[in-house]
Design goal:
The structure holds 2 protein chains of 2 kinds. In chain A, 43% of the residues lie in helices and 25% in strands. By secondary structure, chain A is an alpha+beta fold. The chains are: A alpha+beta, B mainly alpha.
Chain lengths: 210, 85
């Protein structure tokens, strides 16, 4: 298998090869480009000029399965009603059902786009200085939170029941110093590996390697 | 004369409610809500494009604009058909 062209920042070229390899391995393992190692052309609001992005991690696609189910339901409901109207005299005429089908296609397309945008803009950015968690909830709200690596005290991960075990998906909880916000990186692919990478990054930061 | 009065004041007002017509109101409201949500999605993406800069930011913006246009067309067409039905 051809190795993708690596874009290792200067700071990390001197660091342990195993760390860089592991970061790239996670990126290769992920489906739908959920994990990007040392990505090019990615930046975020408030990024320092000397700051390097190590990982960009998005939630596993399984997290959006309920949304996809709702979209499918929106598409199928008017078709089902139209089908049933052939047997039972339901409300309205056939033209009304055609209107409902057009409506459902429009709504389903908007919901699908909304779900895609939620996936794309709900992102965890791990840099050599901090962790940034951006979350898009819907068209009305989003949040932006960040924690400096020095302030991280403890990390735990847990798999989420049957789905978590089956798809290797879980949350990584990050405890920060003080009584501030504790971070939860939700529905990450390979949470154990993510925690390991974060721990190594913290160690490198504490030793002053990066 | 009396028979004319009787004809005038009997059976002149009958109130009938068609369930199909009542159903049309929430359907049109959903269509309008869809257009509003598409517009809000566009505004949200405009903010998020500045928050996270990626190579595909412009593409996403174009798709969201397309969705808004599509929602308006579907909204108009849907409302017309629903009111006809």
């Amino acid at each position: 298998m051809d190795k993708p062209k690596r874009n290792i920042p200067k700071k990390f070229q001197k660091s342990k090869k195993s760390f860089v390899d592991r970061v790239y391995l996670e990126s290769q393992k992920s489906s739908f480009n959920n994990v990007s190692a040392f990505p090019k052309g990615v930046s975020f609001y408030g990024k320092d000029s000397d700051e390097d992005i190590v990982l960009v991690v998005r939630a596993h696609w399984i997290a959006y399965l309920p949304d996809l189910f709702v979209i499918l339901l929106v598409l199928l409901l008017p078709v089902l009603l139209l089908f049933l109207s052939g047997f039972y005299p339901l409300i309205g005429t056939q033209v009304l059902y055609i209107g409902m089908i057009i409506l459902s296609i429009g709504v389903a397309f908007t919901l699908l786009l909304s779900t895609l945008l939620k996936w794309y803009y709900t992102v965890n950015i791990i840099t050599d200085q901090r962790i940034v968690v951006i979350k898009m909830n819907n068209a009305f709200s989003h949040s932006y939170a960040e924690a400096q690596l020095e302030k991280i005290e403890d990390m735990t991960h847990h798999h989420l029941g049957f789905i978590g075990t089956f798809f290797d998906v879980g949350d990584v909880q990050i405890d920060t110093a003080g009584h501030g916000v504790d971070f939860v990186l939700r529905m990450l692919p390979g949470p154990r590996e993510m925690q390991d990478i974060l721990n190594d990054l913290l160690e490198m930061k504490q030793k002053g390697d990066i | 004369m009396e028979s004319i009065y009787e004809q005038l004041f009997t059976n002149s007002l009958t109130l009938s409610i068609n369930l199909g017509d009542i159903l049309k109101i929430p359907l049109v409201v959903i269509l309008l809500a869809n257009i509003f949500y598409s517009f809000m999605l566009l505004l949200k993406v405009k903010v998020l494009i500045d928050t996270i800069e990626t190579e595909s930011g412009r593409k996403i913006k174009r798709i969201v604009y397309l969705n808004l246009g599509l929602s308006i067309v579907v909204g108009m067409l849907g409302t017309f058909i629903i009111l006809l039905g």
